[in-house]
Amino acid sequence: MRDAEQVWFNGGGSQVEAMERAGAAVAREAARFAIGRGILMLAGPGNNGGDAYVAARLLSEAGHDVAVAALGGKTEGTAAEMRMRWHGETVSLEEAVPRPIVIDGLFGTGVARELTKDVKTYLHHIVNNAQFSLAIDLPSGLETDSGDDLGAATMDVTVAVGSLKPAHMLGAGLVRCGHVLLADIGIPVSGPIWSLGRPQLSAPAVDAHKYSRGMVLVVEGDMPGASRLCARAALHGGAGYVMLAGTGSAEAGPDALVHRRVEDAGALRNALEDERIGAVVIGPGLGRSDAAHAKLDAVLESPHRAVIDGDALTLLGFETADRLSRRDALSVLTPHAGEFGRMFEGGEGGKIARTRAAAARSGATIVHKGPDTVIADGDGAIVANSGSSWLSTAGTGDVLAGLVGARIAAGGSAGQAVWLHGRAAQLAGPAFAADDLIAHIAPAMKECL
Ligand SMILES: NC(=O)C1=CN([C@@H]2O[C@H](COP(=O)(O)OP(=O)(O)OC[C@H]3O[C@@H](n4cnc5c(N)ncnc54)[C@H](OP(=O)(O)O)[C@@H]3O)[C@@H](O)[C@H]2O)[C@@H](O)CC1
Ligand SMILES: [K+]
User: Fold this and answer.
1) What pLDDT score was predicted for residue 36?
2) Which ligand is nearest to the CA of 14?
3) φ and ψ at 121, to 5 degrees?
4) Where is the YjeF C-terminal domain (predicted)?
């Protein structure tokens, strides 16, 4: 957004115009929600406060009852101009009395540190005692690039100005922002970060057969239940043929699942010689024994697309970037936060920046799971946060790994799998078990055809 603004200013766009448009967008939304109730506008010292003064003026001109609570601090430039154009009631933040509607324009993208105890106390008191709260651009005290909480209050609505920022989709932002509305202020924005939308999928071609649909080999491990969940998800994720390679019971799992007896890494290497394989999944229920490690080596040395999940990620550890960057075929890693930390030490910035850096180092596509899943590859990052909090249950990661296998075997993407997984969870409703999720993949897929 900062880059886009700069380009727009360089092309003759004025700061005053940008702020007028931002303030007008906020006033428009606030008027819809206020329906005649008294408004308290919180205005900080920077441009977020500038937006607030514009919105206060426009709302007041439109007949709303508006008071401004101003935070001390040096206001300069356009924000100072907008402050001067406001002629209504103004009190200090300390003196402010809560009103039914609060609009928070203390800080936006410029928040630089934890809110002081005083500011945090007044802000939370005012928001908690309002009937409705709306944040301008971001809830004040939410770090823009990481979504880290520096003392923000939880808002009902946040009006994102110009574009979504990472904090609207990540971390504490998922709770603090409330419902996020996007206000177009006429500044074109483009960049390498997107939010995940419903994918467009197509039915198999008329002449499709089981191998052209995508063959997925799932490596069975010490906990065969997890591997079977993964294999079943691959079957329902659109794969044409799913083979479970291991020593578990050949009777377990659906009849459509092909069991191949694979005792050890040598036998796995033989199985991997099949050129029809579209993707291999390793990790769900794998275990961390030497035998497991040897199987992982066999997969990494194969020429197939590979999905690496669970125990396989922990086995790779800090060797991940080195080993994967040597692969020619696509590798997709599906770590949760703990596994990510065991593979990629430290790293600067928020979840998006750290995941993109790891993808660049390893050459892999990384699905960094959580309530704010970040999918990164060399082209950029996609954030997915509209799944379901009921997904936080054992086995759902195995289902996702199988889905990723099915989609990439069919020439699709990890993002498609993440969307289908999240949508299946929404359709499954509350308190489902990972097994139940699988029945909802087909209805989710139907929405994409
Ligand atoms: N660019 C544009 O033209 C447009 C921008 N737009 C709007 O501008 C917003 C960004 O504005 P911004 O960059 O001025 O930063 P902003 O969020 O107002 O805060 C900076 C001020 O806060 C202060 N401060 C920071 N942290 C603090 C703390 N913890 N406790 C106390 N003080 C703290 C900081 O002071 P300092 O750190 O220098 O001491 C500085 O004074 C953006 O979110 C959008 O709403 C739209 O109008 C569209 C056009
Ligand atoms: K704000």
Assistant:
1) 87
2) 1
3) -60, -45
4) 193-448
Q: Count of domains in the chain?
A: 2
What pLDDT digit, counting tens, does each position of 179-189 carry? Answer: 999 999 999 99
In a domain, 428, yes or no: yes
What distance in Å separates the CA atoms of residue 23 and residue 226, rounded to the nearest whole number? 52
111 shares its domain with 11: yes
108 lines ligand 1 (CB under 6 A): yes
Q: pLDDT digit string (tens) for 258-299?
A: 999 999 999 999 999 999 999 999 999 999 999 999 999 999
**Structural contact between residues 78 and 50, judged by C-beta atoms closer than 8 angstroms:** yes
User: Same domain, yes or no, for 115 and 243?
Assistant: no
Residues 295 and 171 in one domain: no
Nearest to residue 100, comparing CAs of 129, 75, 67, 57?
Answer: 129
Q: What's this model's pTM, rounded to 2 decimal places?
A: 0.93
Rounded Cα distance between 106 and 87, Å, is 19
Distance CA 342, CA 134 (A): 39
73 CA distance to ligand 1 middle (Å): 11
Residue after which a domain boundary falls, among 152, 175, 191: 191
Q: Flag whether 230 is in a domain.
A: yes
Let me know whether 170 and 38 are in one domain: yes
Known binding residues for (6S)-NADPHX are: 226, 285, 336, 398
pLDDT band per the 50, 70, 90 thresholds, residue 8: very high
**Probe ligand 1: pick from 8, 26, 48, max atoms within 8 Å of CB?**
48
Q: Is residue 201 part of a domain?
A: no
Residues 409-424 pLDDT 10s: 999 999 999 999 999 9
Which CATH number goes with the domain that contains 55? Answer: 3.40.50.10260
Q: Which domain covers residue 351, as residue numbers?
A: 215-446
Q: pLDDT tens across 191-219, in order? A: 899 999 999 999 999 999 998 889 999 99
